[in-house]
Amino acid sequence: FIFMVLQQIQFTDQKQEYNRPPTKTVRSMSQSSTDSFTSVHSDSSEDESSPRDKHQKSAKGLSDFCIKNINQADFGRKEIEMAEQEMPALMNLRKRAGGEKPLAGAKVVGCTHITAQTAVLIETLAALGAQCHWAACNIFSTQNAVAAALVKAGISVFAWRGESEDEFWWCIDQCVAAETWQPNIILDDGGDLTHWIYNKYPDLFKKLKGVVEESVTGVYRLYQLSKAGRLSVPAMNVNDSVTKQKFDNLYFCKESILEGLKRTTDIMFGGRHVLVCGYGEVGKGCCAALKALGAVVYVTEVDPICALQACMDGFRVIKMSDILRQVDVVITCTGNKNVVMREHLDKMKSGCIVCNMGQSTSEIDMAGLRTSDLKWVHVRPQVDHVIWPDGKRIVLLAEGRLLNLSCSTVPSFVLSITAATQAMALIELYNAPEGRYKKDVYLLPKKMDEYVASLHLPLFDAHLTELTDDQAKYMGISKHGPFKHNHYRQSQTFLSLTHKHTHTHICIILK
After folding, report:
1. Which residues are annotated as a binding site for substrate?
2. pLDDT tens for residues 294-353?
3. Pairing label, strands 383-387, 393-397
4. Lowest mean pLDDT segment, chosen from 40-49, 358-367, 448-457
5. What segments bear the compositional bias annotation Low complexity (predicted)?
6. Distance of alpha carbon 396 from alpha carbon 344, whole angstroms
7. Which residues pair with 331 in a beta bridge?
């Protein structure tokens, strides 16, 4: 490996207000099913007892794990191999970096969705020398067969589809296993793992090399800790990298929103009225997909810039209270909390479908739906009818949790882009010399975004045009990139901040 220091990035001091950790909802009204409509999620043959009650051991003698059924490993391996075909960047990193093991000695504790796609990331980290312990960031998104395949390959996984709230936190704690295994770097999606270690194992947290966070919710928490002077380790904000915002958030949601809705409800969208709350990258992807099927789409927004984009894309921007009685579907895409409250749900017409595509689990007021006057009827896996006293019913999907990763499969290629960025961030943080990173939140430079993007172009047989020396001089850039300045970040988290720090950081793997 040749580690190249790239360039300086300016940081900020006006951080977002602290967003409290989302509470994992106890599944008391709706019995979560271990079934799904895809083969990946199908676990109908399994018993309903908790894996916590079983003593488990793999064929190789590994017992440091807790999953649903180790016997599904062979099927999970096939799913992982399918995902590998659509994740060229990670496979490329294995070929380029595997020999020198840039993560040798790294002990990565991770909390993400455990799917075939993230399994490719986890096994790439292991191929680069890391030891990995993994838990799930969502109680509905774990693919049990994939978890089994990872365990069979020697990865310690503590997760299964349909965990309770207590089991969710137990899995995270077992994954950390502070008394028997000392992790030295975190990969998080949502901030729950970071929050847990920070509060329960503060001494361990201070010894970490750093934190890599990919979600807007987790990033908000890190910025707030930094603002309060309580962030004791450096952190990488992957969420605001261009390769995350412009691909994962946009195209991932554009391709998966319809599948999640159709698999759970069988709804036809032509002519249906849909309200999308939030017109960030996730909202843009959802709106584009729904519009393409002939749906009448309305948008709610708090940001005038995003609202203007929605208007110019042909969507009517409206207040929720003015349209609720007419819409057939309500989709939250904000990453905020208390977006759809009980008073909103009371106004919706019978049969309205309500779901969440944002990272936060608190966008829909679940507490307001779990009251004695409302009746819950479990209809399908991740589908519940909430019935009002007058007979009106709302169709609630995934109990307000992330729809696409709870109710459908996801496009491997788009996730390859995000996963490659996460891998590069982990390598950089782990190998950074003492003093390169302070106790702050860092953004990724354009050179890394461009490098990750370049790893995916061969799949399309795409060939880049090279600037002439004169053209590069005219533009004031290197002919080899980066081609955009560091302030070119079209994500609200970054644009809402002002410059504070300047640090030289980030190296990428080049052969």
Report:
1. 115, 189, 214, 244, 248
2. 999 999 999 999 999 999 999 999 999 999 999 999 999 998 889 999 999 999 999 999
3. antiparallel
4. 40-49
5. 28-42
6. 14
7. 276, 355
d(C-alpha 450, C-alpha 470), whole Å? 22
Of 222, 238, 192, the C-alpha closest to 429 is 238
Cα 289 from chain centroid (whole Å): 20
Q: What is the pTM of this model?
A: 0.72
Token representation of residue 115? 């799917």
Alpha helices in 276-402 (DSSP H): 281-292, 304-312, 342-347, 366-369
**Of the candidates 492, 426, 458, 443, which has an alpha carbon nearest to the alpha carbon of residue 6?**
443
Confidence of residue 93 (pLDDT cuts 50, 70, 90): confident
Q: Domains of the chain by range and CATH?
A: 2-37+49-244+411-443 (3.40.50.1480), 251-406 (3.40.50.720)
State the DSSP string of 233-246: S-EEE-TTSHHIII
Binding residues for NAD(+): 280-285, 301, 404
Which class for 211: exposed (0-12), middle (13-18), buried (19 or more C-beta within 10 A)? buried
Binding site residues, as ranges? 115, 189, 214, 244, 248, 280-285, 301, 404
pLDDT digits (tens, 9 = 90+) for 68-81: 999 999 999 999 99
Q: What is the distance between the alpha carbons of residues 290 and 153, in angstroms, rounded to a whole number?
A: 40
Torsion of CA 364, 370, 371, 377, to 10 degrees: 120
Residue 333 is encoded by which pair of tokens? Answer: 């895409």
